[in-house]
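Quick one: structure tokens for this chain, please?
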Amino acid sequence: MEDFIYQADRLHAESVPLELIAEEHGTPCFVYSAAVMRRRIEELRAAFSGQSCRICYAVKANGNLAVLQHLAQLGCAFDLVSGGELARVKAAGGDVSVSVFSGVGKTAEEIRQALDAGIGAFHVESPSELERISRIAREMGKVAPVSLRVNPAIEVDTHPHIATGFRGSKFGIPWEEALETYRMANRLDGLEIRGVACHIGSQLIDAEPIVMAARQLVGLADQLREEGIELEYVDVGGGLGICYQDEKSPSLDPYAEGLREAIGDRPLSLIIEPGRYVMGNAGILLTRVEYIKHTTGGHFVVVDAAMTELMRPALYGAWHAIMPVIKAEGRERLNCDVVGPVCETADYLGRSRNLAVEEGELLAVFSCGAYAASMGSSYNSRPPVAEVMVDGDRHDLVRHRGEADELYAGETLRQS
């Protein structure tokens, strides 16, 4: 896939053999391609050429500091959902002043941190949050830039766990309450209204629902203008899907054109929040086969990676391509489940795969640049794995492999 390709039967990340990365940094290991990230940003910029469009990369997809640094150098702003993500963006040199802070449960401390950092805007999800931000801003002697995240009640074709814009979702302000909530925001001291936002779901193959949502947001902006509330931007969120198996990734041209038409000649700029689209196919998970286990119930390829590195198959039933790092021609293929060592039946990376593989060999799990490392855990006391970024023929360790004692460094024994 893209810059993870075979050269003489050996899988490479750009110009670097994955065998070399495994030898130097061990397994499991995430490997990211800087070239894929650049290409995705260039494609988005080209699609929106001539339109005022700010790219706010969704940090939740992958918050590695080197990833954020690379995207900041490419001119991206950021979509944040926690104080930890705010701290990451600052540490990576990102511009907080053009970034947005989303999320349904912002704490008082996170709001203070974001105001101190000069956040571009809070995307507010409830009247209670508006009141909290107003109070804290006044206490700090600041004016908080705010936009409302509204729920346009649009159903989308994606996994239920990542659909966010339907009626009854915890996300956003219900559409029928949006106008009155803007009036409330306009009355509160310490606030400055900036725009309107939504996010209707993730891994969307059809971009038309995003365009439909944009039309609704623009219509709301028109109503607000009639009441004297001028918005600066419309934020349509992220959600663009990628190809994991046989999906057809959405074309950027009708997506961009639909958003342009929705805004028309209004003095509104556009914000998009891609995460998976930028990072999903920019990363692989490199893993080694520990055992091949044959039972009456089936064949299992037991690898050293697990649901602690890639939660998506267990959480969503997600499919990821799995390929050998070194092709073995003429070897018999085995129909098998690729599973990890974690003590859960759900700990699998792939079911019913036909692989020609032996113990000790390397496998690459594709499309692991987004929602893999960022969703990782230390269950079974498994330390974080190494992360490597490749750029041409250069590869850099961008996260060291964790040690067991780091997992309990913040814990203490009781005194006898």
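Residues 34 and 412 are 40 Å apart (CA to CA).
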